[in-house]
Write a structure and sequence with these properties.
By secondary structure, the protein is mainly alpha-helical. The protein has one domain (11-132). 48% of the residues lie in helices and 7% in strands. The chain has helices at 14-25, 40-52, 61-79, 88-94, 110-120, 127-132, and strands at 82-85, 98-101, 107-108. Strands 1-2-3 form a three-stranded antiparallel beta sheet, covered by helices on one side. Strand 2 (98-101) and strand 3 form a beta hairpin. The longest helix has 19 residues, at 61-79.
Length: 143
């Protein structure tokens, strides 16, 4: 995957960041990444592949950031979330500068969820399971 700059985009940039990542990631591969909740299973497989490929966190940083942006964008498109810049306390708590706010006001950290899947692996860190157990979703989100 192509290199991107080292900074994490702000909330206003995350939608286009996710789209750019998706375009690069699918340029040579026919990955079923269509912003559906089903596609989160593919994200799990991609992260597992990075882990098995012996990539360290620094070496996988750009891919993990792109996958985190993609997961967040799934929440925006399918669960009614909005991208938000975290305040100082949230940045310390989540270890990330951006996340999503759900319709009920809950804040989630998709970038951190992707990092957890990479670092810890296992079914308990699945992004697909995260979706299935996600609190605060809108009943029917607009695409």
């Amino acid at each position: 995957m192509a290199e991107v700059d080292e900074r994490v985009p702000c909330a206003d940039e995350m939608r286009s960041y996710a789209a750019d990542f998706l375009a690069r990631a699918t340029a040579r591969n026919r990955l079923p990444l269509d912003y559906s909740e089903r596609s989160l299973r593919v994200v799990d497989f991609l992260i597992d592949g990075l882990r098995k490929g012996a990539a360290d966190r620094a070496g996988a940083r750009n891919a993990l950031l792109g996958l985190g942006a993609y997961v967040g964008e799934v929440l925006v498109r399918r669960a009614g979330a909005v991208w938000v810049d975290f305040d100082a306390d949230q940045r310390v708590y989540f270890g990330q500068p951006v996340g999503v706010r759900m319709p009920d006001g809950r804040v989630w950290n998709p970038l951190g969820k992707v990092l957890n899947r990479f670092e810890l692996g296992g079914a308990q860190e699945s992004l697909q399971t995260f979706w299935l157990t996600l609190h605060g979703r809108a009943r029917k989100a607009a695409v």
